[in-house]
Amino acid sequence: MMKSQSCLRNHPNVTATDMPGKWKEKPKFEDHHTILKGEIEMEEQEDVTKHCAFHDRQGHNLSECRAFERKTLQEKTDWLRQAGRCFRYLQSKHLARECKASIKCNKCGSKRHLDILHMEKLKKVSCSKIVLLEVFQQDEPDRIIKVYALIDEQSNSSMICPKLADELRIVGPKEKYFLSTCGGSKETRYGRRVPGLVVKSTNGISMPLPTLVECENIPTDKREIPTPELVKKFHHL
User: Where is the composition biased (Polar residues) (predicted)?
Assistant: First the structure.
């Protein structure tokens, strides 16, 4: 008897108990995993100092909002206008023209918008010519600014970029207009109206311009600017 019990207790595959004829079951692992506790404790807490106006919740700013970033530029500007927020800094209680915040777009270097409002400009210009002109206001003929103008024979409107409008000290509200492209798309835009401008060619011929509409995304390609060699062949350039 003692010999058989001794062999049984020392068998490598069996764990015997004090009760004869029964074996102790191997202990089971508990269902919870303590390692997850550490992971939960290390989980990032929401930043209560940030507030997203698009979601009306804390945790991130509007400029960091992925849902807002996925919207089209038109949808973003429409929402900002309805929410009464600044187009430059995205904050409320002031307009873009009153904004004094120092900002910069990391994609194009512009100081007029943040990354989330950046839109890639077209790299190619079709049906257009670029010429050097002088532009001035009718009531300030001595204040001349030299610019490159894009002549597009397929366009039925004349436009001006925000930078030139600012240099000409143009003031006034941004009005709504619709922009249709050669690709068939139609977009709603907002821009200042600029009347009373005159352009003068390099050979001294002046011509009054119709009322211009401010447009931030005028396609340009410096490779289409005439070279000095080409200008010599065409006196009107």
Answer: 1-16
Report the C-alpha gap between 54 and 75 in whole angstroms: 12
Q: Taking the chain, what is the end-to-end CA distance rounded to the nearest angstrom?
A: 119
d(CA 169, CA 27) in angstroms, rounded, equals 83
Q: Are residues 161 and 194 in the same domain?
A: yes
pTM: 0.42
Residue 109 lies in a domain: yes
* Whether 134 and 217 share a structural domain: yes
Q: Which band of pLDDT confidence, cut at 50, 70 and 90, is reported for residue 6?
A: low
Question: What confidence tens digit (pLDDT) does each residue in 71-122 have?
Answer: 888 888 888 888 888 888 887 777 777 888 888 888 888 888 888 888 765 4
- Residues 16 and 24: their CA atoms lie apart, in Å, by 6
Which residue, 67, 96, 117, sits at the end of a domain? 117
Copy the structure tokens of residue 166: 């600012």
Write the secondary structure of 138-151 as one string of H (helix), E (strand) and C (coil): CCEEEEEEEEEEEE
What letters, b where the CB count within 10 A reaches 16 and e where it falls short, cover 21-58?
eeeeeeeeeeeeeeeeeeeeeeeeeeeeeeebbbeeee
- The number of distinct structural domains making up the chain is 2
Residues 207 and 139 in one domain: yes
Residue 75 belongs to domain spanning? 51-117
User: 124: helix, coil or strand?
Assistant: coil
